[in-house]
Design goal:
heterodimer, A: alpha/beta, four-stranded antiparallel β-sheet, 7 helices, B: alpha+beta, seven-stranded mixed β-sheet, 9 helices
Chain lengths: 222, 425
């Protein structure tokens, strides 16, 4: 079956705080198949989960190897990768990355590449994540769960092919985590694919496939 | 990245930065303007004139009776006139003849600021009825001078025409005069003034106006301003005066001969005395005395030193101000970057291209410097010292500052994005 994403032979060196260099990834391979809706990436802290998401998002270009998207070899060019990201990738950051002094709808609007229909699309995305009526609220007045939903709405507002989520429930209580996971399931049904970096086996269990970063490579989670 | 949102968040810092740079630009403008005007003044007044040795030429007829008796004799006055004429055309020295004899002017226009006593210890009489003529007159301030004095002090005419010195002849029906800048609006070129010049009814024709702030060295005052003065030119020679006007030309010739002699510093006092002796022997007038007037040189020297010291002090202050501005700008840039970085990071993470972010940053810098141009331009245009020559270096400095600042902010952006790519998504 055709792959949506195909990372081939990815190697990356990092420098430790003590000045020593080490491999973070060594000849790592990753594929997201067309039929898969979600993949979980597990691993210890410092194993490289976030770094892998940065590479998939096209933010981190300092690695060796190839990045294919639907068989197109993506150039390691900052602006080209930004275009790829803006067009196809939705991102849910670990710390939400919302602007506290803007209201909800303006934060969501930032996820859109164009201003055309921005407000109505943002309102629609907020409705999808269950935040109808929150449009004018300032981010600083929201709870953690609500803020996370805003981040999700911003990630999906442009109807991306793939959402990259970095520890999406790391700061949430169990009840809110369940709500978010239910939301992810719902969004997957609508056709959006998820690649989720997480510590949580509960989150990973919701995904079609589970991988773990071990010995600088991605291997199936047992 | 939303420009309006960014401007709202950084408005105070942007205005503070624009004001800070504007203040610096305005002070630089003033410094350049000051240094240009002082260097021009130094070039014009000091460099050539301070090289001169100055002497005061006075008559020795101190006793009023002797003075009156001398003036009654037509031949005496003629010898004095001849003495003046010879000195006036002598190339070895410059006879700088200036006198401030007041002139009663009939139906004088203007307020009491043109009165001879105004601004002095004397009382201001203003307009009054002259009993002899039955006309309303005012004793206006007036300076009489010869061409060499006019040239020596670099007096400039702003409108009308300058004096045609060779055509000055008090026997003519009218005498051309210049008016100080304060007379603008009261008289126009071509107007005539009826005056009483040493008891001789004289019609003066206005041929031009002096530039504002024109001054001469007179009576120990290094800046004797002529803005409110009627400037009457002396004729090049009065040797052929009419016999019936001996009284008038007698007084006039004494006024003309009591003058300053400027000679090159290489020209000794003995050389000056030698020139005077020859003129005396040739004309027959020997009632003169020569005094050295170091006051003039001392005052010029002090003034020059004062200007130079002030300029050095101003340059020092300017350097400190520029350095402080730089520190302030760097601090404000850091503050605004701190305010912007969240927005930049999010925009970058969401997929906004680096070139677009760089464009927004450049727009922000352009807005800051547009405000600088607006603030500093408005203030500079309202300053009294308008100087296009000073504006050019300030404008160039601002362009350089803009380019350097924009480059610096682009570098900060690049560095920030580079670090952002290493952070967690």
């Amino acid at each position: 079956m055709k792959n949506i994403i195909d990372l081939k032979n990815v190697s990356k060196m990092i420098r430790e705080p003590n000045g020593e260099s080490r491999f973070l990834f060594d000849d790592l391979q990753f594929q997201l198949g067309a039929g898969e809706q979600s993949v979980a990436i597990l691993g210890r802290s410092g194993s490289g989960k976030s770094s892998l998401l940065r590479i998939l998002a096209g933010i981190d270009l300092s690695y060796q190897g190839d990045y294919h998207y639907e068989d197109e070899n993506l150039l390691k060019n900052s602006d080209a990768m930004a275009r790829h990201r803006f067009k196809r990738i939705g991102i849910i950051a670990q710390r939400y990355d919302l602007l506290d002094d803007l209201n909800v709808v303006r934060n969501v609007k930032m996820g859109l590449p164009t201003k055309h229909d921005a407000i109505s699309r943002s309102r629609s995305a907020l409705e999808d994540v269950g935040l109808k009526g929150f449009e004018e609220k300032l981010i600083r007045r929201l709870s953690g769960g609500e803020a996370q939903r805003v981040a999700i709405a911003r990630a999906i507002v442009k109807a991306p092919a793939i959402v990259l989520a970095d520890e999406p429930t790391g700061a949430l209580d169990e009840h809110t985590e369940s709500e978010v996971l239910t939301l992810f399931q719902k969004l997957q049904v609508s056709g959006i694919k998820f690649i989720i970096a997480t510590h949580s086996l509960r989150v990973a269990d919701q995904c079609d496939r589970r991988l773990v970063l071990k010995d600088n490579k991605l291997v199936p989670f047992p | 990245m939303e420009l309006l949102y960014d401007l709202k968040r950084t408005a105070l810092a942007t205005i503070a930065k624009a004001l800070l740079i504007s203040l610096c630009a305005i002070t630089i403008y003033n410094l350049v303007s000051f240094s240009q005007s002082t260097s021009q003044a130094v070039d014009r007044s000091f460099s050539s004139n301070a090289e001169k040795g100055l002497y005061s030429l006075v008559d020795r007829l101190i006793d009023p009776d002797a003075f009156a008796e001398f003036r009654e004799s037509s031949s005496n006055v003629k010898s004095l006139a001849e003495f003046y004429s010879q000195l006036n055309v002598n190339d070895s020295i410059e006879l700088i003849s200036v006198f401030d004899q007041t002139i009663p002017i009939v139906d004088a226009r203007g307020d009491n600021s043109f009165d001879y006593g105004y601004g002095t210890e004397m009382s201001t009489r203003g307009k009054y009825l002259d009993e002899a003529s039955g006309k309303e007159v005012m004793n206006v301030k007036s300076i009489q001078l010869n061409q060499r004095a006019f040239d020596f002090y670099n007096l400039e005419v702003s409108s009308g025409e300058t004096i045609r010195w060779n055509q000055i002849d008090y026997s003519n029906p009218t005498t051309p005069v210049l008016l100080g800048a304060d007379y603008r609006g009261l008289y126009a070129v071509g107007d005539t003034l009826e005056g009483n010049f040493y008891s001789k009814k004289t019609i003066f024709t206005v041929v031009g106006f002096l530039e504002p702030d024109q001054s001469i060295f007179y009576k120990g005052d290094i800046n004797f301003y002529l803005d409110s003065y009627l400037v009457v030119p002396y004729p090049p020679s009065i040797v052929d005066f009419p016999q019936e006007e001996t009284y008038f030309y007698g007084i006039l010739s004494f006024a003309m001969i009591n003058s300053v002699i400027a000679a090159d510093s290489s020209f000794s006092t003995d050389d000056v005395l030698d020139v005077l002796l020859k003129a005396s022997q040739s004309s027959g007038f020997d009632q003169y005395s020569l005094l050295n007037v170091p006051t003039y040189l001392v005052q010029f020297s002090l003034a020059k030193r004062l200007i130079t010291e002030n300029l050095s002090l101003l340059i020092y202050i300017e350097v400190v101000l520029v350095a402080s501005t730089l520190v302030g700008v760097v601090a404000l840039n850091q503050f605004t970057h701190h305010r912007r970085k969240g927005q930049i990071r999010i925009a970058w993470t969401l997929g906004q291209r680096r070139s677009l972010l760089a464009g927004t940053t450049l727009t922000n810098t352009a807005i800051e410097y547009s405000l600088v141009a607006l603030f500093s331009g408005a203030v500079i245009l309202s300053l009294p010292n308008q100087s296009p020559e000073s504006l050019l270096p300030v404008a160039l400095l601002l362009v350089v500052a803009f380019v350097a600042d924009a480059a610096s902010q682009q570098r900060v952006l690049t560095s920030f994005l580079s670090n952002t790519s290493k952070e967690n998504v």
